[in-house]
Amino acid sequence: MTNEVRQVMDKLESIKEIKNYIQSNELVLIYFKTEDNGICRELDSLIESVSEKYNKMSSAKVDTGNLPAIPNDFKMFTVPEIVVFMKGTVVVEQSRYINFREIEEVLSNYYKYI
User: Fold this and answer.
1) One Pfam family this chain carries (predicted)?
2) Is the CB of residue 30 less than 8 Å from the CB of residue 85?
3) I want to staple 65 with a disulfide (CB 3.0 to 4.6 A). Which of 15, 34, 74, 104 is the partner?
């Protein structure tokens, strides 16, 4: 038996991976961030807590610093940004000032359908 620790959130590293992830999973939370942003570093544990709470939901982190095409493909203007998709459709999108109460409300409403 191994003492492997389950990673709470997947890590996506390409536009194709992100799009496939969104299309392949029913309820998805994507956390767009950069490693050099202090706010993003502060939010990491909060985002992971939400992912643990809604563990049937698929969740992933994307380091936008490694993907310069992200703003064009996902119409992003700043990080951090959290986007929740239900069956490929955006149901909540928040950037810069993240309202976790609203995100939790949306997740609890959609979570019962997966």
Assistant:
1) Thioredoxin
2) yes
3) 34
Pairing of strands 10-12, 27-33: unpaired
Within the chain, strands assigned E span: 10-12, 27-33, 58-63, 81-86, 89-95
Thinking of the domain 10-112, which architecture would CATH place it in? 3-Layer(aba) Sandwich (3.40)
- The two tokens of residue 8 are 């709470």
pLDDT grade, residue 69 (50/70/90)?
confident
Beta strand 58-63 pairing with 10-12: parallel
CA 51, 45, 10: angle at the middle one, nearest 5?
A: 45
d(CA 35, CA 52): 21
